[in-house]
Amino acid sequence: MENIADNVHIGELIAVSKVFLLNPYQMVTLLENGEMEVFENKEAFFEKYGNKETYDELSDWCELNNGKIFTKTK
């Protein structure tokens, strides 16, 4: 299993948890189960999902001011 702390700072986790209306524990669980992803930048996100107006395969997504993108699948 991937160590989440290598990719996500606790401050990022707390900020994004407020957007997704989840607590940090729920966010970590979703990340561990692959139901949430973290992309280091837009290019990595676009490589997987493409650059389009809507993303039907995602229930929500959030871009932080440092460029990281968090996605939550349906």
From TrEMBL:
This is Uncharacterized protein.
